[in-house]
């Protein structure tokens, strides 16, 4: 957006632009997770249901000792053909969305997001993360990013819905909660939201079992993972 007049590029054009700007290029083979290989589209709906519920997995003795958890995407199970899908608790590729919202010293607001992808999708499927207003959105009133079932997020343009609430006088926390409740009512979707409003207030909401989050304001770090969990540290 700083080096072209466009808001977004895709496909071969995006690759050519990235190479022209000497941006590091990822090998597509590096994006293939174990689950992308063993799970096909006939498994998609069932896989998504378990993946985005956010259930922790602590079945391995070593995990219980260290309290290590992973998402339900790493659960033992079977695919539609009856072939086993084994848990991979130490596999970093079972991770999900990483995103952020921020305000600088001048009061400018911004958001950034990435995606962990989802196994079993059809070729060519586009998720919420690259779509403005779905995976992320920011203007002078607030910023928001999302995680969860991309199809449900896109139907509501969830990030835009969060900021719309802030434009109508709600703070970041109220806006995140209202928008997520609307998505759940509208599409029964699973997911989570983080948000920041024009006053620097942070908000978060999720309807999964867990969502890891953290915020920093005035040298105070707040963080949590479970519903209503808020821990605090001074920096």
TrEMBL record:
Q: Name one GO molecular function term.
A: beta-aspartyl-peptidase activity
> What biological-process GO terms show up in the record?
L-asparagine catabolic process via L-aspartate; proteolysis
Reactions this protein catalyses: Cleavage of a beta-linked Asp residue from the N-terminus of a polypeptide; L-asparagine + H2O = L-aspartate + NH4(+)
Q: Which Pfam families does the record associate with it?
A: Asparaginase_2 (PF01112)
Give the Gene3D superfamilies listed for this entry: (Glycosyl)asparaginase
The family database entries (InterPro entries) matched by this protein are listed as: Ntn_hydrolases_N, Peptidase_T2
Could you tell me the superkingdom of the organism this chain comes from? Eukaryota
Per the UniProt record, which residue ranges are transmembrane? none
A cellular component annotation (GO) from this entry: cytoplasm
Q: Which UniProt keywords apply?
A: Autocatalytic cleavage, Hydrolase, Protease
The record's section on PANTHER family has: ASPARAGINASE (EUROFUNG) (PTHR10188:SF43), L-ASPARAGINASE (PTHR10188)
Write out the similarity annotation. Answer: Belongs to the Ntn-hydrolase family.
Please report the name of this protein according to its UniProt entry.
Isoaspartyl peptidase L-asparaginase-like
